Amino acid sequence: MIKISLSRMVMEYSIIDITYGVTIMEWDLSIMTRVRMIMERVRTIIKRSITIPDLSMKAPEQSMMILDLSGLMLERSMVLPEWSTLNFAYNL
């Protein structure tokens, strides 16, 4: 399964022709949209676990640290599609 997705990724990004630029950018944006959705779910789950006394009392510092980290990753995942699109356009 991993080999299939890796070979697919290499095939998508190995296309140099400018006519495929839109396809590559759309593919890139769809991946980043999925990453954002996953990060939002992770953040929601962590927020819920912090509000549950059993979980938050066992390791409150770690819970907050993970929540902050997931927030940071979510913010970065929102910036990546813009950066990758600009970078791709610049390299053409």
Summarize the structure.
The protein is mostly helical and 92 residues long. Helices cover 88% and strands 0% of the residues.
Q: Care to describe what's here?
A:
This protein starts with a helix and ends with a helix. It is mostly helical and 92 residues long. It contains four helices and no strands. α2 packs antiparallel against α4 (60-91).
Ends distance: 31 Å
β-strand number: 0
Estimate percent helicity: over 70%
Question: Could you tell me the radius of gyration in angstroms?
Answer: 18 Å
Mean pLDDT: 60
Largest sheet: none
Shape: elongated
Structural class: mainly alpha
- Overall tally of structural domains: 1
Order of helices and strands: HHHH
The low-pLDDT segments are 1-17, 88-92
Helix count, DSSP H or I runs of 4 or more residues: 4
Give the strand content. under 5%
For the structure shown, list the relevant keywords.
single chain; 92 residues; mainly alpha; 4 helices; elongated
Show the helix and strand layout.
Elements: H1 2-13, H2 21-51, H3 53-58, H4 60-91
Helix pairs in contact: 2-4
